[in-house]
Amino acid sequence: MRIMAHVPTQAYGFVEVEGTDEERAEIERLYNHYAETPVAFKSGMVKRLKAFVGGEIDYDEIAHSYTWNGEVYLSGSAYANSFKKPFDKVAISSAMAKKVEGVTPESIVEMWELSADASRDFGNAIHKALQLYTQHREGAELLEKTYHLHNHPIIKNAVEGFMKAHSEPALSEVLVVDHTNKRAGQIDRLVIIDKDKKICRVEDYKTNADVTKELEFYWKQLQFYGDILKVGGWQVEKPVIHHFDGEWHEYTYGS
Fold first, then answer.
1. What is the pTM of this model?
2. Which residues contact 185 (CB under 8 A, 6 or more apart)?
3. Where are the domains of the chain?
């Protein structure tokens, strides 16, 4: 695995990237942080989407990037990650491998990456299953089927456990855009507290082993979405994180 990038600070810079989607996204973030003119890395998977607030935006499914009229918009995850200290996999794995014979830096990095992949895939499965239930329950019930409820026992129990405790009106995977400040992102769960008065609450699902280690960054991401909603005319209550580690736990900002 190799990552290469020439990060330009002039008009005719170029970039070459090899690595995972996450590493590619990080190079794009660095590119656009230093470049005179931000650009979006193209993948051929761009779709124009209608947002809950803010109008339309172009979304690249592969690069996970938002653009409008050629300009790259800041996403919630990129905003939160900008506060994190980078993890130097090469230096740390090399230092660890020097202490033990028979273990290479590459094998250590591979262990980390496989573990991260497993965590990410599990989190995506729970997210998708909750989205499936929220967005398609009515249609499945009209069919007199349970297509909205994933049939894997672990995933099914997670979804049923969450929905049993949360019957309030909510939207899933809500796209929000702020063209004035060039920001965009998708909210896991948006609870509509009062539709007429435009009062809502931003919520998120997390499945990592210890959510408390990351709360500082998660709050920044949810506040980022809340700020976009406020620009769109909504009143936003304190955000909430729902953490699943076999059981559901709830964290409210400031409590």
1. 0.80
2. 66, 75, 76, 77, 175, 176, 221, 224, 225, 228
3. 1-39
